[in-house]
Specification:
The protein has helices at about 1-25, 30-50, 60-80, 85-110, 115-135, 140-170, 175-190, 205-230, 235-245, 245-255, 265-280. The chain is an all-alpha fold. The protein has one domain.
Length: about 280
């Protein structure tokens, strides 16, 4: 449990980092396609180096495919939210909202136990999300960003549960993530709807710089998810998501580095989400 927790917290840091790298892009909705493409390359390479069988059962492949559908929706809604609202707000609403969905789903569908501390932690998370979301909504774009962040939360909850079932059915982590990304990529490409433009050939240096940024973000993304799957294999889906959502704490630091100025309410909300996560996993 201790090793699995450490792996999940490391995954949380990398997850917040690659999301922050995506937010830095001029058009997150275009950049996410490039980042995801690089992540797929890295994930396939890792899958080829992993042992066999990659999927012990047909159920494992089925759950991996389902995870890919939710991953595709996740990438699309995440990029759309980041294009419309502040990183710190989007990240907290998406990750914290997913936690509120996974805990009851884990209890009802996977028969995972829910302690009184976990229920209290979920209440803190809900209050924290209210404070963070209340900071947004003053402009139409911010309100739309919150809608996409809420949809992103649903997608996160979906792929967490599917990954958990795939691992339980005999999937290996690297092949599982590779399959999910291959399934997710068409969703992201379809969401572009003509947003890409043909660059001037004289701007080859700029294309190289952009490709390098996307490759770095893709590598960080892959590392984050592979560490997450490794930790998920040792703990339940709800606990895994809770630990990984300590990334909300890291995300606020990255938000400040991006030039955002979180309000006291936003910071208090992020702290409540983090405290709620800690309470959920407290023994």
């Amino acid at each position: 449990m201790a090793l699995g927790s450490a792996v999940l917290i490391a995954s949380a840091f990398l997850h917040a980092l690659w999301n922050a790298l995506l937010k830095r892009e001029r058009s997150p909705q275009v950049a996410v396609a490039g980042v995801l493409s690089w992540a797929a390359v890295f994930a396939i390479a890792a899958a080829l180096l992993s042992g066999s069988p990659a999927f012990a059962t047909r159920a494992a492949i089925g759950w991996g495919t389902a995870a890919g559908v939710f991953e595709g929706l996740y990438f699309v809604t995440l990029a759309a939210a980041l294009a419309r609202a502040d990183f710190g707000i989007v990240y907290t609403v998406a990750r914290g909202g997913a936690m509120l969905l996974v805990w009851p789903a884990g209890a009802l569908l996977l028969k995972e136990p829910v302690a009184a501390k976990a229920a209290a932690g979920a209440c803190l998370i809900g209050i924290g999300l209210g404070l963070v979301a209340g900071r947004a909504g003053r402009r139409g774009a911010e309100r739309a960003g919150m809608v996409f962040a809420a949809a992103c939360a649903t997608s996160i909850a979906g792929y967490h549960l599917c990954y958990d079932r795939a691992l339980a059915a005999g999937a290996r982590d690297a092949p599982l993530f590779a399959v999910a990304l291959v399934v997710a990529l068409p969703f992201v490409l379809a969401s572009l709807r003509g947003r890409t433009t043909v660059m001037d050939p004289s701007r080859a240096g700029r294309r190289l710089s952009t490709g390098l940024r996307w490759a770095i973000a893709g590598l960080v993304c892959t590392g984050s998810f592979l560490l997450f799957l490794r930790g998920l294999s040792t703990v339940g889906a709800a606990v895994a998501l809770t630990l990984r959502n300590t990334s909300v704490f890291f995300a606020q630091g990255f938000a400040i580095l991006l030039g955002e100025r979180p309000t006291r309410a936003q910071l208090a909300g992020a702290l409540l989400v983090t405290a709620g996560a800690a309470l959920v996993v407290a023994r």
